[in-house]
Specification:
11 helices; about 80% helix; mainly alpha
Length: about 220
């Protein structure tokens, strides 16, 4: 996938500006002496009131607009496990994530392709091109390379025209375990469940280590 150099200065300034705003907001909240725990619980109560249908619908749609999937994965068990059960929550979350994978792929492959192609070129990149034999490598590299947002991974795969079946299978195999670990870990953190947090963190470490090995393997493969 060939690409030209992006504009690093503008990207760096944008990141610094975002970090600055976050720090300022955090400092303001500290100065005002807000109870973060109570604030968090109030926010969770509002989301619970919206109900699981609204939440999982948002989990399908909003990440297609750039909202991090992590925002949904971290609190979902705490929000709805007591109401509908842990296993249904995990299954619904995985289903919503899979639906988002499908949605973003076809947005990039068909419905929004002209707009996204224009945006890629405006950012200083070339449209991704992939041969059929390299599709697996591209999908894996997109999934295991740190720093690429989830929605961007999906859009790049769709723009490159990788086969849909291969894209969906590999994406699910690589993203499901990590996100299940994040869901359990988020619930353990919110409720102080030390044992569950340890098990979830161990799962995340194992998936991260496996991802690192996969990344090294495909890195050597591309170099050769």
């Amino acid at each position: 996938m060939a690409e030209t150099q992006p504009r690093p200065n503008r990207a760096l300034l944008l990141k610094l500006a975002i970090v600055g705003v976050v720090l300022l907001v955090a400092a303001g909240l500290l100065i005002r002496g807000l109870d973060f725990r109570a604030l968090l619980e109030q926010g969770l109560d509002i989301i619970r009131g919206a109900g699981p249908v609204a939440f999982f619908t948002a989990m399908v749609l909003l990440p297609a607009c750039g909202v991090p999937m992590l925002i949904f994965s971290l609190p979902v068990v705490s929000l709805f496990a007591e109401r509908i059960g842990l296993v249904p929550v995990l299954l619904l979350s995985v289903a919503a994530m899979t639906a988002n994978l499908v949605l973003t792929y076809f947005l990039a492959r068909r419905w929004l392709r002209p707009l996204l192609a224009w945006l890629v070129q405006r950012l200083g990149y070339r449209m991704p091109q992939v041969e059929e034999g390299d599709a697996t490598s591209l999908i894996v590299i997109l999934r295991v390379t740190p720093g690429i947002p989830f929605f961007m991974q999906n859009y790049l795969a769709g723009l490159a025209g990788v086969p849909f079946g291969k894209y969906l299978l590999i994406s699910c195999l690589l993203t499901w375990p990590m996100n299940v670990g994040i869901m359990l870990f988020g619930d353990a953190l919110l409720h102080g469940k030390g044992k569950v947090a340890l098990v979830s963190f161990s799962l995340l470490l194992a998936v991260t280590a496996a991802t690192h090995l996969v990344r090294r393997h495909y890195g050597r493969k591309r170099a050769s």
